Amino acid sequence: MFVLYETPAGYAIFKLLDEKKLAEVDNLYLEFQTPEKANKLLKLKHFEKFNDTTEALAAATAAVEGKLSKPLKKTLKKFFSDEVQSSLLVADAKLGNAIKDKLAVPCVYNTGVQELMRCIRQQADSLLSGLPKREMTAMALGLAHSLSRYKLKFSPDKIDTMIVQAQCLLDDLDKELNNYMMRAREWYGWHFPELGKLITDNIAFVKTIKLVGTRENMAQSDLSDILPEEVEEKVKEAAEISMGTEISEDDIMNIQCLCDEILSIDEYRTHLYDYLKTRMMAMAPNLTVLVGETVGARLIAHAGSLINLAKHPSSTVQILGAEKALFRALKTKKDTPKYGLIFHAQLVGQASIKNKGRMSRSLAAKASLATRVDAFGEEASCELGATHKVKLEARLRLLEEGNLRRLSGTGKAKAKFEKYQAKSEVFTYEPEADSTISIKKRKRSESTPAEVKDESVLEASENQDESTAGGEKKKKKKKKTKNQDHEQPEEAPPSKKKPKTKEPDSD
User: In sequence order, which ranges of 80-201 are alpha helices (DSSP H)?
Assistant: First the structure.
């Protein structure tokens, strides 16, 4: 059983003297504690040295891709011509499959082989006799530099690195400009606090401080190139009655130095933004037309590269940048976010609040298609992005007008245009309801058939009641007459009234 060991200087082939030791993976490191023990277990059979760094780089790139390089192929052909029945221990499974397919050499790669390679690496200086340590170190360093330079040059993922770095630097410059402007306004506000309210533009504010200095020079300065006439008059009037404190020449000099820094950073930011525009139009023209340079660059920077962004589905592109809100919503079982970085696109910003979610979903779908065309397409043109943008603008117009028609489906589905009409909830005052006059009875001719029927029912019921009451009265009268006939009542004696006697007065 032989072992293939790859080094920066060449290929080494060892013979494993005791195959039983490979089965004991946990105790294998004990056999490599000293160079003497390592030489008892492994014996160097052949070492194929690279001629130069170019050959070493070609062999390394082939090993990374899982292919069989020419030097290794020649070496294995020579060495295994006689040893047909022996197997070869290989660290990489892809390389082992390539050797087995092309040379028909049985290869072994498992955890035991990985542990053996780790032990060989520890005692490589003693096992590879005749190769100085300095030479091995120099060849390893040269191969590492060459391989990293090759990967950076030919990797398709690294083409848009400039866009990612430029966008990150642009965000950093915006933060620094904001901090510097806050410091300048607060610093100069002790001397002239009214100026900050009169001049809202930061660059105009800084240029005014740079040109004028202290507020005493405001009346003599010409600010027509920086400020409008109305604002200039107000500034000069406020300078005469300002409530600020007095500052020295050293103070105003340091403030003006800060203004120079702000102006230089702003100038560089403008130059960097123009550079980012040109790079985005050259790298991803369709995505740039759809969402803009800044949003497109932020999406690429957040995904890592243009190819990684093209691999994302449209639903991921829609919420890219809102990962915290998404996982928080999933954890609390609430509504997930509708948009992330794509919220700052122009099409989403033009939509109303209720239509922002729909526009972000539509824009994410089109942006995902545009990104794939930019990443994997052969021709660099912005026709796809322009056509999609026109469709999205028409879609936004329909949503804002309230026309909710089906964009997909059969031709029989017709659009129904429904205008939104606001219904007033204000109730009018009816003075007739306050009347206390009783309503007159209508004539029978004016009443409706239903009312006539109800009235007839009521009259019938009243007549029935009257008839029953009349019958009862007649019965009572008959009873009384019968009693009078049978019993003649005696005449009552006249009652004698006693005369009233006057009570004597107490007086």
Answer: 93-103, 111-122, 124-127, 133-154, 161-189, 194-198
Collect all residues with Cβ–Cβ distance below 8 Å to 136 and sequence separation of at least 6: 7, 8, 9, 124, 125, 128
Residues with Cβ within 8 Å of residue 363, at least 6 apart in sequence: 290, 291, 342, 345, 347, 348, 392
Task: Report how far apart, in Å, the C-alpha atoms of 402 and of each of 185, 354, 416, 417, 501 are.
Answer: 46, 11, 10, 7, 105
Question: How far is 394 from 388, CA to CA, in rounded Å?
Answer: 10
Look up residue 489 and give its two tokens. 């009542």
Q: Is-above-0.85 flag for pTM?
A: no
pLDDT in tens, 41-56: 888 888 888 888 888 8
Please tell me the distance from the alpha carbon of residue 329 to that of residue 183, in angstroms, as a whole number. Answer: 38
Q: What are phi and psi of 302, to 5 degrees?
A: -70, -35
The token pair at 344 is: 């700052």
What letter represents residue 141's amino acid? L
Distance CA 200, CA 3 (A): 75
Kindly tell me the sign of the dihedral angle through the C-alpha atoms of 473, 474, 476, 477. positive
The first and second tokens of residue 121, run together, are: 């690496």
Name the residue among 294, 286, 280 with its Cα closest to residue 342.
294
